[in-house]
Amino acid sequence: MPHAVKQDILPLPEPVGLRIDRRTITEQFHDFDTEHPYVYRALERLTANRIAARATRIGLNALFEALRWRLPQGLRGLNNNFTALYARKLIADHPDWAGAFGLRCRRTP
Predict the structure, then answer these.
(1) Cα-Cα-Cα-Cα dihedral of 21, 27, 31, 36, to 10°?
(2) What is the distance between the alpha carbons of residues 25 and 29, in angstroms, rounded to a whole number?
(3) DSSP result, the chain
(4) What is the pLDDT of residues 47-104, one digit of tens each?
(5) Do the beta carbons of residue 29 and residue 109 sit within 8 Å?
(6) How far is 7 from 103, CA to CA, in rounded Å?
(7) Residue 58: CB partners within 8 Å, gap ≥ 6?
(8) Residue 95 and residue 46: Cα distance in Å, rounded?
(9) pTM check: above 0.70
(10) What residue ranges do the domains of the chain occupy?
(11) CA-to-CA distance for 83 and 62, rounded, in angstroms?
(12) Organism's domain of life (predicted)?
């Protein structure tokens, strides 16, 4: 049986470009929304257009995809985790749109 060669175990470097974000999704959303207010305005316009076209149900995921196609090279940071938070913000600002969005109960504040 061959002798095992002792190898020193070196710590692996952290992958380049991979950053672990310890903030909650809500905190990330508020920071993103503050830095990119035009995203909310664009979602507001898209929603208003869909309502004007007599849409009875609107999915924020579909609006996100439409927005990604309209923005040059997409938008870094437009996270699908933000869809429910944008829907809630749209409803808070436009209560008459509440019936167009389906929302679930939040598990976290």
Answers:
(1) 100
(2) 6
(3) -PPPPP-PPPPPPPPTT-----S-HHHHHHHHHHH-HHHHHHHHHHHHHHHHTT-S---HHHHHHHHHHHSTT--TT--GGGHHHHHHHHHHH-GGGGGGS--PPPS--
(4) 999 999 999 999 989 998 888 888 766 667 788 899 999 999 999 999 999 988 887 7
(5) no
(6) 54
(7) 47, 50, 51, 97, 100, 101
(8) 16
(9) yes
(10) 36-97
(11) 10
(12) Bacteria
- Encoded tokens for 58: 């609107």
Q: Which two tokens stand for residue 82?
A: 């933000």
Single-letter amino acid code for the residue at 55: A
Neighbours of 13 (CB within 10 A): 6
Give CA–CA dist 100/91, Å, rounded. Answer: 9
Q: How far apart are CA 36 and CA 77, in angstroms?
A: 10
Instruction: Answer for the pair 58, 101: CB distance below 8 angstroms, yes or no.
Output: yes
